[in-house]
Amino acid sequence: MNKYRNTMAACYVGYIVQAVVNNLLPLLFVIFKEHFGISTQKLGSLILINFVMQLFIDLAASRFGDKLGYRRALVLAHLCAGLGLILAGVLPIILPSAYLGLILATFFYAIGGGLIEVMVSPMMDAMPSDNKSAAMSLLHSFYCWGQVAVVLLSTVFIKLVGEQYWYILPVVWSLVPLFNVISFLRVPMPEMLAEEERVSLKELFRNKLFLCFVLLMISAGSSELAMSQWASYFAEEGLGVSKFLGDLLGPCAFAVFMGIARVIYGIFGSRIPLKKAMLLCALLCVGCYLLAGLSRNPYFALLGCAVCGFSVGVMWPGTLSLAGAAFKGGTAMFGILALSGDIGCSIGPWLTGMVSGMVEHSERLSAFGDAFGWSAQQTGIKLGLLLAVVFPIITVFSLLGLKSAESQRENLEKQGIVC
Predict the structure, then answer these.
(1) pLDDT in tens, 13-35
(2) What is the pLDDT of residues 367-399, one digit of tens each?
(3) Dist CA 71 CA 181 (whole Å)
(4) Which of 49, 342, 357, 362 could cross-link to 41 by cystine, CB 3.0-4.6 Å?
């Protein structure tokens, strides 16, 4: 393991980069709306573009990732992420359309985010470890600590320097992926799984157990991102708190709780049954969405938002660990799982934003919130989050469906048909 200590450190920073590209711009949504007049629907579309682009990268990497190799793929990923962040600070100012500038920037950093997601997890899985599910959970905890750093440092910057200088933030954050390029050029890389040892994608998709993992990744991505991407907006517009408090009590608290869950499992994973932990967390997630969407007390709503981070903490890395233990699919399998997760990451926030925007502009739906004393914006984001409860519910049923799928797999093994 000592041989790969620096490699693991570079992987940890890679997940911090992933957190930067996924969470920095949503913190600026209110600024974009006020300064550039970008609508809520268009802001939601930026999230959709990010994850749809990552989706295509996941699909491409599932086919060509093994040929490209860990080192070249991750160097390219970090260069694209750095370039995209620089463009996010420059293009909205110099182009006639700020929204077009944000789309172009999103295109580049989404390439980086997609490649990081596809390549880092199988690379960590390929490194020697006594408990791979715990190691995977600890790896993904760095996404959370990256998100905390992004929210805290960016919020303090905006508070001290002023909203008019927002464009400095993406440029400064671009230094993180550019620095990690140097690391991935130098650290040792683990051996990739030989082609003859890998299960083909065709075989994987014929297995119901793998299809359960795909559905779990979709629902995990939706459950996590529907809340985290809109937490800042929800706190400010939906609950009426200041941007400073909104960011601290919304996305920052969400990320802290999610990181705590992943670190706990990373330390005590050998003593905690993973599937039972995931099921309990999915049920908790359902409760958190209901609390955030229905509570009239802003502090209870924020509590639901924060604890939701804990509830989704083990879903994504837990699914990857279960799949890695069940199948030797290599980079292609992790690419498909990342693709599935990014489908969820696209659908969840987009659906939340679309519903929120529709409610804001509908007199009939906005009137629903009048009984609770909510404005049109508050009603919109609350109903958007309330609808998103469907995703953790899907997670619950997917986990329950694993049992029958595993039973079928055991029967196939007895017959000599092994994936």
Answers:
(1) 999 999 898 888 888 888 888 88
(2) 666 666 666 677 777 788 888 899 999 999 888
(3) 10
(4) 357
Residues in the chain: 419
Which tokens go with 332?
A: 């292609």
Contacts within 8 Å (CB) and 24+ apart, 286-289: 286/389, 286/392, 286/393, 286/396, 288/227, 289/227, 289/385, 289/386, 289/388, 289/389, 289/392
Record the tokens describing residue 13, joined without a space.
């920073």
Q: Who contacts 354 (Cβ-Cβ below 8 Å, separation ≥6)?
A: 41, 44, 384
73 Cβ neighbours under 8 A, 6+ residues apart: 61, 65, 115, 118, 119
Among the four given CATH numbers 2.30.40.10, 1.10.10.10, 1.20.1250.20, 3.10.20.80, the one describing domain 2-414: 1.20.1250.20
- 409 to each of 135, 209, 211, 323, how far by Cα in Å? 26, 7, 12, 13
Which residue carries 């002023």 as its tokens? 162
Greater confidence (81 vs 245) lies with 81
pTM value > 0.70: yes
Output the six-digit token pair for 351.
């659906």
User: What's the rounded Cα separation, in Å, for the pair 60 and 44?
Assistant: 25
* Cα 382 from chain centroid (whole Å): 21
Q: Reduced to 3 states, what is the DSSP secondary structure of residue 105?
A: helix
Sorted by where each begins, the domain ranges of the chain are 2-414
Q: pLDDT tens digits for 251-297?
A: 778 888 999 998 888 887 677 788 888 999 999 999 999 988 887 77
367 Cβ contact partners less than 8 Å away, ≥ 6 residues apart: none
Residue 192 is given by DSSP the state P
Q: How far is CA 172 from CA 108, 302, 377, in A?
A: 17, 29, 32
417 pLDDT above the threshold of 80: no
